[in-house]
Amino acid sequence: MVAAVMLSLGLVWVGYLVHVWRVASRSPVALGRPMTVLVFGRRLVRDEPEKDYQQRLLRALALMRARETEHVLLLGGRSGGAVSEAAAGRDWLAQHELPPGVVMQLEQASVDSLENLRHARSLLQEDGPIMRALPPVALVTSRYHLARCQLLARRLGFDSVPVAAEPSLVLNRRYVIRMLAESGYLMWIDIGMRWAKLIGHRRIAARLS
User: Fold this and answer.
1) Which of 11, 33, 138, 185 qualifies as a FRET site for 2, CA 20 to 30 Å off?
2) In a domain, 105, yes or no
3) Per-residue pLDDT tens for 178-207?
4) 129, part of any domain
5) pTM score
6) Which residues are within 8 A (CB) of 127 and not within 5 positions of it... i.e. 6 or more apart?
7) In what order do the strands lie in the sheet with 36-40?
8) What distance in Å separates the CA atoms of residue 165 and residue 112, rounded to the nearest whole number?
């Protein structure tokens, strides 16, 4: 019985891995229309953006320079350092030539991708006493991370498009490990949402809505 459960979960995991790979390999690096850009942060190294985070920031910079966005929201709270991921991203971008007229906001209260999006949603809906409709958004992050962010964004009501930080998907040992981990995260999030809906678990459903 235990072996059957383990085997079935393994097969399900493979299905999610295929989905993560498809999103990672097929996501664009540009937009067809101007959109609000959400840039996902990542744990800092000595209070500075590491390689993956720098790639995400470079993609956002390219979108700004191509006039594909006039509103950038940097996401990420403190992950053990003296500054937030969002603030470190802003400081890194400030060292480059930024086009004029771009509004840049920081979301600094989150600790994971779900909180990133929940707090971003609140910031984008702020309009006095009345909440405004969410604008369409581009989710800018590493290719291995896109499927999870897209799933959460849609669950939270975003009209979203995944935009890859890297020019193309290059599979090496490090990247395969990250995609395996992401497929596991995605599996448990998706199954958890479906299970909460099935049994009417309001607390879990509320957190993911």
Assistant:
1) 185
2) yes
3) 999 999 888 888 877 776 666 665 665 556
4) yes
5) 0.89
6) none
7) 103-107, 71-75, 36-40, 137-141, 160-164
8) 18
Place of tokens 């009501």: 157
CA distance 66 to 104: 16
CB 157 within 8 A of CB 194: no
What is the domain range of residue 161?
27-168
Whether 200 maps to a domain, the answer reads no
Residue 116, Cα to own-chain centre: how many angstroms?
8
Write out pLDDT tens, residues 83-104.
999 999 999 999 998 999 999 9
Q: How far apart are CA 131 and CA 119, in angstroms?
A: 14
What the block records as the tokens of 81 is 């350092």
35 inside domain: yes
How far apart, in Å, are the Cα atoms of 12 and each of 19, 47, 172, 188, 191?
11, 38, 23, 10, 10
How many CA atoms are closer than 13 Å to the CA of 163, on its beta-carbon side?
A: 30
